[in-house]
Design brief:
This protein is α/β, with parallel strands linked by helices. The chain has one domain: TIM Barrel, CATH 3.20.20. The protein contains 16 helices and nine strands. The chain has a seven-stranded parallel sheet with strand order 1-4-5-6-7-8-9, with helices on both faces. β8 (about 275-280), α15 (about 290-305) and β9 (about 310-315) form a beta-alpha-beta unit. α8 packs across α9 (about 160-170), α8 (about 145-155) crosses α10 (about 170-195) and α15 (about 290-305) packs across α16. The longest helix has 25 residues, at about 170-195. It is globular. It starts with a helix and ends with a helix. The mean pLDDT is about 100. The structure holds coproporphyrinogen III (CP3). Coproporphyrinogen III binds near residues 75, 76 and 203.
């Protein structure tokens, strides 16, 4: 591969410079995405049409010259493939018209095979061929706990009362659903790897709303099952808000750990030890500042992580209204930085 900085960093090798990509790089920060999205008119159509998903995946490669592509899809394709369809409402986000509340609901969910998300698998093949071995392609899925939360709540939530209380009141039912999500996710990610994904990332977006005890019982075992099943493919686990679980996550069979911006690089390294690559973690809101400040904050972060085992990213997905020149300033600062 022409540029395999990302894979080198995940293997723990010294790199000539640090690799950089952005969570949510394929999306509304790019004018070409917004134009295409206007024309197509529906997010789900974009995700489900391999040609379009391929085009959107490649847009940030052309515009930003990042060191990895991430396949354009969504974490919610898994609940849909299990039998719980979602809708993407403009300016509101994802909504599930039906949700999981009873044991009968859990029984109705199927363990999805790769055919349930064949459109993403097809898109990966197209992207791989278009990339022509220039940079690695990242596949992804939601972590089981985060998918569980969407399936029970039906959308994002301020308190996550339904999903969290289910863990206390109906632990066996919760485990039964988490098991089905995990098996579906393993099938899906294995298909992504067979189609050409070089790395996979698990997004545990709602990790930070669980107590450490609940996280250990209801998220960690399922993350481990997925990481083990995918060996030897490098897996990156991004558990947002889970400062309390960093040392446990570092013990999973994963090559990398994503960090949100609330965690200092030193704290993360102390918790995680030296056998894992850290990814992150500039506050996405830094990119609303003047460019000299963006540069300064990025340099500080680069230094704080030290020379090795670091993949540069933001601490969460880039926000849709972020000025593009700040995004480019961030990327160029990383590329010019001498380790
Ligand atoms: O560039 C990439 O990172 C690849 C594509 C990608 C999308 N969603 C496309 C998308 C990825 C990796 C995701 C992951 C995802 N989806 C997560 C985990 C990461 C995170 O942000 O914590 C979550 C929680 C979702 C669920 C989801 N999808 C939400 C809450 C929303 C609405 C909020 C928003 O950003 O609009 C989406 C929609 C979505 N997924 C868009 C994109 C490009 C925007 C749709 C549009 O208006 O065009």
């Amino acid at each position: 591969m022409k540029n395999d900085l990302l894979l080198q960093a995940l293997r723990g090798e010294a790199t000539r410079r640090k690799p950089v990509w952005l969570m949510r790089q394929a999306g509304r920060i790019l004018p070409q995405y917004r134009r295409l999205s206007e024309r197509v008119g529906s997010f789900k159509t974009m995700v489900q049409t391999p040609d379009i998903a391929c085009e959107v995946t490649l847009q940030p490669i052309e515009e930003l010259d990042v060191d990895a592509a991430i396949i354009f899809s969504d974490i919610l394709v898994i609940p849909e493939a299990m039998g719980l369809p979602y809708e993407m409402e403009k300016n509101k986000g994802p909504v599930f018209p039906a949700t999981i509340g009873t044991a009968a609901d859990v029984d109705r969910m199927i363990i999805a095979g790769e055919e349930g998300v064949d459109y993403t698998v097809k898109a990966i093949k197209l992207v791989k061929s278009a990339l022509n071995n220039t940079i690695p392609l990242i596949g992804f899925a939601g972590a089981p706990w985060t998918i569980f939360a969407y399936m029970v709540e039906g959308s994002g939530s301020k308190t996550f009362t339904l999903s969290r209380s289910m863990l206390y009141n109906r632990p066996e039912m919760a485990h039964a659903l988490l098991h089905k999500i995990t098996q579906s996710t393993i099938n899906y990610l294995k298909a992504q790897v067979s189609a050409g994904a070089d790395v996979v990332q698990l997004f545990d977006t709602w990790a930070g709303i669980l107590s450490p005890q609940l996280y250990t019982r209801f998220s960690m075992p399922y993350l481990q099952q997925i990481c083990s099943a995918l060996q030897p493919t490098p897996v990156i686990v991004f558990a947002k808000g889970a400062f309390f679980a960093l040392s446990e996550i570092a013990q999973l069979s994963c090559a990398g750990m994503g960090l949100d911006w609330t965690i200092s690089p030193k704290f993360a390294r102390d918790m995680a030890g030296n056998n894992i690559t850290l990814q992150g973690n500039l506050d996405p809101c830094v990119l609303y500042a003047e460019l000299p400040f963006v540069q300064k904050a990025t340099l500080q972060m680069l230094q704080d992580f030290g020379p090795n085992r670091h993949i540069v990213n933001l601490g969460h997905g880039v926000y849709p209204d972020t000025p593009l020149d700040a995004v480019k300033c961030f990327i160029n600062t990383v590329k010019q930085y001498k380790i």
